[in-house]
Amino acid sequence: MTFTAAALKPAGWSSLAKVFSNPPVSTQQIMHPDLYKSGHVPDHVTLPSIETQLGKDWKKLDDNLLGRVWLAGGSETIHG
Length: 80
Description:
Elements: H1 2-8, H2 13-21, H3 27-31, H4 33-38, H5 51-54, E1 58-64, E2 67-72, E3 78-79
Antiparallel strand pairs: 1-2, 2-3
């Protein structure tokens, strides 16, 4: 709600259309609308590889923007 209010403040509803053509690139920009307005882009975070540390009984199920999901062999326990 804070982000939307900040987007509407300059010129009303017409300002909101600009957000759809240039959406926020991070949750940080939504939480801090001034960062969105300034064009600040957060640092890219690279997660270290943990495949060798987990061992052969683990299988990577997914790796995406939200994180990594691993499954232990013979177990239904999911770790991420």
